[in-house]
């Protein structure tokens, strides 16, 4: 019967809403610091990672996909009115930097790129994996999924990884996972594209990293 099912969903919605607590993001970026934003890159080797791992069946993202993610993230950050220094893919090309032990280091590399741009802090978005939906917004044979990380790095000495925001999601039908009811209503009951799903991760990063 539909009526009891509706009541159950309404109860779950109310319960989840009551359990959510808004927490103010930790303020790590003060107004006196200059902040660079790296373009989206996709680590293909372990040495390019700042944390986590590369899945064995990783799908390689093309240049157009990365460019679209860059533009979407830039639009998310525009609301803050902060004068970010946006780096291009040409700015982040080149040989990786070495750490104090002479080893290739992703942390040292991004810190060096920030200093070259005249920035104290750098935001580094990394796309680990992205898979497009098969189908349409009304119905998908295979849902979109995304795995992405956002890092906040202090490029001043000593170089420090300040914070990481991880977002990994694969959209599921509400009937298969009622705990996703808040997301279901937020997405207006439609199946998202991979780009739209990735944008949710960007919004999460903006909030958690205090951007």
Give a verbal description of the structure:
Helix content is 31%, strand content 20%. The N and C termini lie far apart (46 Å). The protein has a single domain (32-208), classed as 3-Layer(aba) Sandwich (Rossmann fold). With 211 residues, it is of the alpha/beta class. It contains five helices and seven strands. It has helices spanning 2-19, 63-78, 106-116, 181-186, 194-208; strands at 35-37, 85-86, 121-131, 134-135, 140-142, 145-154, 160-170. The strands form two sheets. It has a five-stranded mixed β-sheet with strand order 2-1-3-6-7. The protein has a two-stranded antiparallel sheet with strand order 4-5.
Q: Which tags fit this structure?
A:
single chain; 211 residues; Rossmann fold; 5-stranded mixed sheet; two-stranded antiparallel sheet; 31% helix
Order of helices and strands: HEHEHEEEEEHH
How can the largest sheet be summarized? 5 strands, mixed
Structural class designation: alpha/beta
Assigned CATH architecture: 3-Layer(aba) Sandwich
Number of helices: 5
Distance between the termini: 46 Å
Care to count the β-strands? 7
Task: Name the overall outline.
Answer: globular
Low-confidence stretches: 6-11, 13-22, 174-179
What kind of assembly state do the chains in view correspond to?
single chain
Name the helicity range.
25-40%
Strand content: 15-25%
What is CATH's topology name? Rossmann fold
CATH class: Alpha Beta
Mean pLDDT comes to: 82
Q: Strands of the largest sheet, in order across it? A: 2-1-3-6-7
Count of folded domains: 1
Rg on CA atoms, Å? 19 Å
